[in-house]
Amino acid sequence: MAGIGIVIAILVTLVAVLIPWLPTSASEQMDRIEFVYWFATVICIAVFALVMAVLLYSVMAFRSPPEDESDGPPIHGNTGLEIAWTVVPAILVIAIGVLSAFVLSKNGEAGPNPLNVKVFAQQFAWRFVYPDDGGLKSGELVLPLDRTVKFEMESADVIHSFWIPDMGQKQDLVPGITTSIIVTPTRTGMFSLVCTELCGVGHATMRATVRVLSQDDFAAWVKERKSGGGKPNAGAAIFAGAGCGGCHTFTPAGSNGEIGPGLDDIVSVAQKAGRDPAEFVREAIVEPGKVITPGYQDGVMPPNYGETLSPEEIDALVAYVTGAKK
Amino acid sequence: MSVIEHTSHDAGHGSGAPPNRRNILMRPGFVRAAWCFALFFLVGLYLVAGIRWLAGWDPVYDWNIIVLVGGLTLAPIGFLLGLGSFDYWLYWISGRPTIPDDHANHGAHTWKDYFKVNTDHKVIGVQYLVTTFIFFTLGGLMAMLFRAELAQPGMQFMDNQTYNGLVSMHAALMIFVFIIPAFAGLANFAVPLMLGAPDMAFPRLNALSFWFLPIAGTMFLCSFLAPGGAFATGWTSYAPLASEQPIGQIFFNMGVQWAGASSILTALNFLVTIITMRAPGMTFWRMPLLVWANFTTSLLVVIATPFIAGSQFFVMFDRIMHTSFFVPADGGYVLGYQHIFWFYSHPAVYIMILPGFGIISEIISVMSRKPIFGYRLMAMSLLGILVLGFSVWAHHMFVAGMADWLRVPMMISTLLIAVPTGVKVFSWLATLWEGRIKLNTPMLFSLGFISMFVIGGLSGIYLASVPITIHASDTYFIVAHIHYVLFGGSVLTVFAGIYYWFPKMTGRMYNERLGKLHFWLTFISFNLTFFPMHWVGLVGMPRRVADYSDRFADLNLFVTISSFALGASVVVFFYNMIVSWARGPIAESNPWRAMTLEWQVSSPPPIFNFDEIPQVVGGPYEYGVPGARHAILTGGGTPAAKEAHA
Amino acid sequence: MSAHAEALHGGDHHGPPPANQSSRIAPTILGMFLFIGTEAMLFGSFFAAYFFVRVVNPDAPSTWPPAPNEFPQFVAGINTAILVTSSFTMHWALQSIKRNNRRGLQAGLLLTILMGTAFLLTQFIEYAHIGFNTSDGAFASVFFGLTGLHGAHVLVGLLLLTFAANRAFRGHYSPEHHHGVELPGIYWHFVDVMWIVVYVTVYLI
After folding, report:
1. Hey, which chains touch A, using 3+ CB pairs under 8 Å?
2. Does C5 reside within a domain?
3. Which of B50, B333, B398, C50 would suit a FRET pair with A173, their CA atoms being 20 to 30 Å apart?
4. Do A54 and B450 touch (CB under 8 A)?
5. CA nearest B254: which of B205, B206, B332, B317?
C-alpha cells in the first residue's frame, strides 16, 4: 500500500510541478500568494495520496466475488485512530490558516509612500485617476515598477471586481462604499485588468490594459500626459482618459480594442449613412444605443458620457475622432 | 411495469377509491388545475389593477406587478387547488366532518397515480426523482449549449445576455430543482421505511411540498419567454444588478421562494417524522446514518432557508415597490444582500452534500460487509458540520469589501470544517479496510464519490485561505471546485443512491453492465471536463464570461468536447433506468443483504410499509457480528410471511 | 394540519399500522414549533436588513428615523396593547375548551379575532397617515418591510383563527381533542411576541 501511495504522490507532484498552475508573478503580493499556494499544495498532495492509496489498495486487496456471502470482521471503531484523524487534520489546517493570516496582513500593508490611484468602474468601462499627479485621468492603467500602489475604488452602478491575474490581488468595487487594495508591480510589461464580478450584458468585455513602466518611464509618461492634456491634443487626451481605446480600434490613438466598432473609417460610415460625421459621432457618444453597428451589441457602451464629459470635452473628442483639425 | 406488481401485492389495500361521478371540470386533476390556474391569474390581475385604479396610480395595468401577483403567486396556488392539494384541508376548515380516509390518494396502482396528488411517501419519492431528473436533463442541455459557445473565443451562437441567462438558468435548475430535491426524493422514499414508520408525519403536506417543485422549475424556465430574456445575474443574483435587470429576474426571485417553501416544508416533515415516529427500540444511536444525515440537513434547511427567501424579497421590493434596501444613494447597503444571501447559501452547500454522505455511509458499509467505522463519530461529525456551517458564510465574500476583521475568523472556521469532513472520509476508508468489497455499480459510484469529493474538498482548503481566494475567486477555479463538490460529490451520490434503491423502488433489477459503463463514462468525462478548469481559472480566466482571451482557446475547446461526452454518458443512465424499470428481472427483497429496515420488506414495499411496526433490537450495521439483528419484523409485510402466504 | 396517525382509524385492517409514538410531544405541536422557528428566521432576515441599513452602513442616518420623518410611537403603542390583550383572550379560549366550556371557547376566539382585526386596521390607517412611502429611503424600506411582514403574519393568524372559530361554532373540539385551537393559538402568541420585538426595535430604539 505504501508503494501505491508513493506512486500516487509522485504522479500528483509531477502534475503540480510540471503544469504552470499560476501565472508568472508580476507583483510582491502574488509572490506571497504563491508561497501559501505551494504550502497548501504540499499538504494536499500528502492527504490525497494517502486517501487514494488506502482506497485503491482496499479495492485490490479486499475485493470479493459476488457469490462470496461471508462478512468482514466486525470492527466498530478505534478510539486512538479516530482521535488521530480528528487532531492531525486540525493541526494541518490551522497551520495553513496561520500562514494565510500572516500573508493576508502583509499583502494589506501599503508602506510609507504608496502611489495613490483612484479607480472608477461603471457598466462597462474602467477609469483611473492619479491624485498625486494633479488628478491625471487615464483609461489605461499605467503603473511604476517596484512602487507600492494603493488603489481606492468606487463603482457608479453595480458591483464590479478589479483583478490583474498576474498580480494576484482582487477586490470588488461596491456602489456606496470605497474599497481599497495594495499592489506592488515587480515586472514591466503589458497586462490586462478584467472585471470578475458579473455586472451585466457587457461583463465579458469589461477589460482595461495595464502597463507597468520603469520608474523613469512612468515619470516621463506622467509628464507627457500632463502636457498632452493641453490645447493641441485635447481630443487625444480625452480619448485616452475616458477609456475609449479599451473597446474601439483607432489608429491615431494606437488603440486596438475589438469590443466596439472600429473608428478608423467612421467618417466614411457616417457619409454612407447620409449623416454629418460630427453629428453622427456626437450622437454615438451621447446616445450609444441609438444606432447599433451590425455585429455589435446594444447596452455595452456606457450611456452616460453625455454627463461625465463636459460639452467642450465632447466637442474635442468628436473633432479628434472625425479627424478634424482644430 | 412494477406498478402492476405493486397492485398484485396489495390487492385489497386501498383499492376502494370511490367511482368518481363528479364531472371532469370539477374533480381534482389537471383539467381543474388548468381553469383554476387561469381563474386565479385573472383574480390577481384585477386585484392589482383594481387597487391601482382606486389609488389613482398610473399605469393601472403595471405588468411588473401583475406578473408577480397574478402569474407567479396566485396562479400557481390556483393550480395546486385544482390539482386537489387542498381538498382535505378545505373540508376540514369549513367545519364539515372530514371524509373517513379511504386511502384513495395513497399508493400507486397504475402509472397515472404518479400524476396525482399522492400521499404515499414512496410514490412521492419517485415523483421527486423523476421530476428532478427532467430538470437535470434540461439544465445539462443548457450547459452543453453554452459550452458550445465557449468552444472558441469571440461570440458565435448567442449574445451576452442569452449566455448569461443560460449560465444562470443552468445553476438555478441544478441547485434549486435538482440536487436539493433529488436528495429529498431519495430520503422521502427511504427514511420512513428505515425508521419503521408507516409514512411521513404529514403525508398531505408532503404531497403539497412535492408539487411546489414542478412549479418552481417551470417558473425558472418560463423566464425565457419574458421580454428581455431569462434572468441573467448568475444563481447568486447579486443586488443591485438584479433589481435593474429585465423582468425575467422576478421569475428567479419567485421560483426560489417556491423551491424554498418546498424544501422547508419537507425538512419540517422529516424532522417531525424522525423525532416522533421511530419504531420501538430505534434510539437515536441506532438510526442509520442516512437518517442522521437527513436529520441534520433538515435542521439546516429549517434554520437557513428563510434567509434566501428574505434576500429575494428585498430584491423584489427594490424593483416593485421602489424600496431602497440595496440603493446606496437612498441609504441602502449593498453588501447586506450578500450577507443575507450567503447566510442561507453557504449552509445550502451542506444541504446539498450531507444527504449524500448518508447515502455513501449506507452503501460503503453494506458493500464492504462491515460495520461502519466509528458510527458515533460519524453522526457527531454531521452535527459538527451543522454548527460550523453557520459560521462560515462570509468566506464567499473575502473580496466583496466587507469588514476586514471578519476575514480571519471566517477563514479559520472554514478550514476547521475540513476536520469533520475529513473524519467522514477516513471513517469510510477504515470501513473498506479488510472488508469483503463488492464492486457493483452503487459501490463504484461511492468510491468515485470519495475520490472526487476529496479533490473538491482539497481545492476547498485552497479557497478557505484568504490570500489564495483573493487570487482565485470569481474565476474558473471556483467553477472547477463547485463542480467537483456538487457533481463529483452530490450528483455521484444521487446516482449511487438511485442504483442502490432501484430494486426496492421498482421491484426490478437494473442492468449491472450498463451501470458500470455509466460509471466509467461519467467518471472519466467528468474529470476531463472539470479538471482543466482549475488551470484556466488560476492563470486568469474569470467565470461567467461568454468571450475570453485567445490563450485559453485550446483548453476550452477540449473542455467543451469532454462536456459533450459527459452529457452523452447520462443517456446510458436513462436507457438503463427506463428499460430496467419496464422489463428488468424481478428483484429480490434484499439483493444487497443489508440490515436496515427498508430491505426487510418486499420490493417494492407494501403500500403501508409494514403490517406491524417492527421492534428494533440493535444497530443498523452489525455485519459480521454473529447472531446480530437490527430489528424483528412480524406480520404480512415480511418476505418470509409472503412466501408462507403464497 | 392534522397528523396522519391522528386522521387514520387505527384498527382498520386495510389501513396502515399505527405509528409508534417515539416522543412525548405530539407531531402537530412539534411541527408548529418548527414552523415558528423557520418563521422566526424569516423575521431574522428582515432584522438583518434593518441592522445593515441602520448599523453597518457607513452612511447610516444619525437620527432614527431621519428627520423630519416620525414613527407614530403612541398609536403603535396602543396597537401593541391591543395585540398583547388578544394573547390573553386566546389563552382563555384554549383554557375554556380544556374545561369543556364551549361558550368560553367561542367568545375567546371571537374576541381575539376582533382585536386582531382592529390591530390590522389601525396599522393600515397608520400607513395612510405616516407621511412617507416605500420609495422614501432605506429607513422606510425596513419600516415597511418589518411592519408589513408582521402584518402579513397577523393576517395569516386571523385566517387560522377564523377556521378554528368556524369549527368551534359547528360543535367541533372537546377537552380531549383541541389541537385545532391549540395550534392557531401557538401561532398567535408567536405573532404577538414578534410584534413586541418589531415595536421595540423599529419604533422605540
Report:
1. B, C
2. no
3. C50
4. no
5. B317
**Residue appearing with cell numbers 438583518:** C48
Rg over alpha carbons for chain B, rounded to the nearest Å, is 25
Q: How far apart are CA B395 and CA B472, in angstroms?
A: 13
Residue B462 is predicted with a pLDDT of 94
Mean pLDDT of the region A286-306: 80
Q: How many residues does chain A have?
A: 326
- By the CB < 8 Å criterion, does B158 face chain A? no
**pLDDT tens-digit readout, A50-102:** 999 999 999 999 999 888 888 989 989 999 999 999 999 999 999 999 999 99
Compare CB distances from B101 to C7, C17, C39 and report the shortest one's residue: C7
Partner-chain contact B475 A171, CB within 8 Å: no
Residues of chain C with pLDDT under 50: 1-13
Interface check B228 vs A, CB under 8 A:
no
CA–CA separation, B474 and B463 (whole Å)? 11
A67 is a domain residue: no
Q: Coil, strand, or helix at residue A138?
A: strand
- The number of folded domains in chain A is 3
pLDDT of residue B18: 47
Domain span holding position C152: 27-204
Q: Is B112 exposed, middle or buried (0-12, 13-18, 19+ CB in 10 A)?
A: exposed
Closest to A108 measured CA to CA, from A34, A182, A33:
A182
Q: Which residues of C143-179 are buried (b: 16+ CB within 10 A; e: fewer)?
A: bbbbbbbbbebbeebbebbebbbebbeeebbeeeebb
The total of structural domains in chain C comes to: 1
* Any domain includes C151: yes
* CATH number (domain holding residue C136): 1.20.120.80
- How far separated are the first and last CA of chain A, in Å rounded? 81
Enumerate the residues of chain B whose CB falls inside 8 A of the CB of residue A44: 458, 461-462
Say which CATH architecture domain B113-583 belongs to.
Up-down Bundle (1.20)
Which of A102, A119, A170 should be substituted to probe chain B, the one whose Cβ sees the most B Cβ atoms within 10 Å? A170
A82, B183, B630 from B380: Cα distances, Å: 12, 21, 21
- C90 within a domain of the structure (yes/no): yes
Task: Please name the chains neighbouring C, where neighbouring means 3+ C-beta pairs under 8 angstroms.
Answer: A, B
Q: Is A177 on the interface with C (CB under 8 A)?
A: yes
Pinpoint the residues of chain B covered by CATH 1.20.210.10: 113-583
Per CB-CB distance under 8 Å, the chain C contacts of B196 are: 20
Query: Using the beta-carbon criterion (under 8 Å), do A201 and B401 form an inter-chain contact?
Result: no
